[in-house]
Amino acid sequence: MAASTSKALLGDVYVDDLITSCGNALDFTKPNGVFYKSGNRSRCRKASLSFRSQKGPNSHLISILGDRTLKLISGSSYLPHPDKEETGGEDAHFICIDEQVIGVADGVGGWAEVGIDSGQFARELMSFSVTAIREEPKGSIDPARVLEKAHSNTKAKGSSTACIIALTDKGLHAINLGDSGFVVVRDGSTVFRSPVQQHGFNFTYQLESGSGGDLPSSGQVFTIPVIAGDVVIAGTDGLFDNLYNNEVTAVVVHGVRAGLEPQVSAQKIAALARQRALDKSRQTPFSTAAQDAGFRYYGGKLDDITVVVAYVTG
Ligand SMILES: [Mn+2]
């Protein structure tokens, strides 16, 4: 799946742009969150793009790992690439409140060259993830098994990254495949950041329907102890390519101090990421990576931006 051809895209940047295993082109973008929120009997439902705010700002009670009273209070923000607002872009995400699971996916934009909207794959993958989560034992959800099932059920053409994070009896239990990911912030410091999985610069690991792409088993699995007061920030590369860790952390810390709900913090993070994405001169994580890969590239990267913020509360 390494075959690639070089294509010119934004400005003077050249990137590998894959057809068979589409890497993100520099034309990165994606919009349209799939939002699952409990509130009915099935406890996890699709709720389109209406992000209702959630109750209960985080408390600062210190709990120990394994404390069954820990909860995730989550909110999200999704800013599609400006050019893709009409189709909703290619990112997708979900929040399952009662199961305490969040997920993000980033459909690979390169498929647009062959007329395929990868957003469909990403949304289907997240939708089937929610279905699989409902079948998991309460309190010990296995994100790897969830992703495996979701992948086997997803039939749409396209490909996508995936990141699923569950709060279980053992702490955070997560799987990440590709260049989406998550960070855990504690007392103003980043205590965990999931590594990016790439085959090469701008060529993410990705799931594809059928036998193409990478396999769910290539995803990295994590078990991370958490305590009340921790904040989990999950996002697609539209977030992590544009904001440095300390920038994300600063917004989170401010939000917690101000008693902001997670959705509001997510909106603030997404807005800052968008601001950086539009900045043509400021150094960003993406411009650094591009330069390291030998490209002349400055500024941010315009893309779909998905941010899910989850407060771990006692
Ligand atoms: Mn992206």
UniProtKB/TrEMBL annotation:
Family: Belongs to the PP2C family.
Cofactors (names): Mg(2+); Mn(2+)
The organism's place on the tree of life at top rank: Eukaryota
Keywords from the named record: Hydrolase, Magnesium, Manganese, Metal-binding, Protein phosphatase
Single GO MF descriptor: protein serine/threonine phosphatase activity
Catalytic reaction(s) noted: O-phospho-L-threonyl-[protein] + H2O = L-threonyl-[protein] + phosphate; O-phospho-L-seryl-[protein] + H2O = L-seryl-[protein] + phosphate
Protein name: Protein phosphatase
EC number assigned by the record: 3.1.3.16
Ranges annotated as spanning the membrane: none
Cross-referenced InterPro entries: PPM-type-like_dom_sf (IPR036457), PPM-type_phosphatase-like_dom (IPR001932), PPTC7 (IPR039123)
Enzyme class: hydrolase
Origin species: Morella rubra
Domain PPM-type phosphatase: 73-312
Regions annotated as coiled coil: none
